Amino acid sequence: MPSPSPIRILLQTTIPPIEDDWHVGRFSLLRGYLSGLTGEDGQPLCAVTARDRTAPGAPDPVLSTIDRSDFDELWLFAVDTGDGLTSEDCEAIGRFRESGRGLLVTRDHMDLGSSVCTLGGIGNAHYFHSVRPEPDPSRHVADDRETGYILWPNYHSGANGDFQTIAINDPPHLLLSDPWAADGLLHHLPAHPHEGAVGVPEGETSARVIATGVSQASGNRFNLAVAFEPSAKGGPALAESTFHHFADYNWDPAMGCPTFVSEKPGNALAASPEAQRSIRQYVRNLAVWLAGRSLEQDIRARSRG
Predict the structure, then answer these.
(1) pTM for this one?
(2) Which residues fall within 8 angstroms of residue 247, CB to CB, at 6 or more apart?
(3) Which pLDDT score, from 0 to 100, does residue 305 have?
(4) Which residue of 48, 220, 264, 291 has the lowest C-beta tally within 10 Å?
């Protein structure tokens, strides 16, 4: 039986390649990990392309035509301040998912990544400060108060370089499976001092919150990930509270960060093989699930290995 072709993944930011910012080069550990994954047959599991967008204000040549591409899934890191996507980009991304392909959309605190509000669908799962705030007005208060100029939403799950212990909503989603854990579930994601806000859009029946975190500042619980199951509306999708779950600086602070990052990093993740495994298992699960492949089969194959 011939081996399946590699999963074609596009890692894409919503900003040009600005050196002192969250350009796609700051997700190199993620890219390297995905590129090094192999399937049950020992062949590469993924073929990864990583790029920044072209100048804002004009349709991006890749995003605005992605529905006509051969990519199986798009991991969109919205690191802009509101101008990261044009209407042409959004329409093509919408058609991409409508064709049954997978989509990850993630952002960060306050209004960072707010261009995803123009996406519709999964974009509606993201809440910001100035546009589409969280439906609960009691949430419209600063959570992380260490960095005073960053306003809500800014949930403090821990220092960059540390990890957080997540709570898994029942029934556990396959994305949170870990064949090496005693209970078969992964329990850790990278921490970040000011995560954004996500939730299930009103009237959306194919989506649910699959994991929550807890603020180290206030004790408030907040949503980490909203999974959209494949449906007549489109392929599988995930809305994530922060791109820092995938950034080099959060996996290894020695990789560096933009100069505007002022918070002191931690080192708990580097000292925890279990948390490191948990995070990498999550990434693998996400790659397989977004491709529409059998995550159950992949997990069984890995546990046998």
Answers:
(1) 0.97
(2) 22, 26, 27, 30, 190
(3) 58
(4) 264
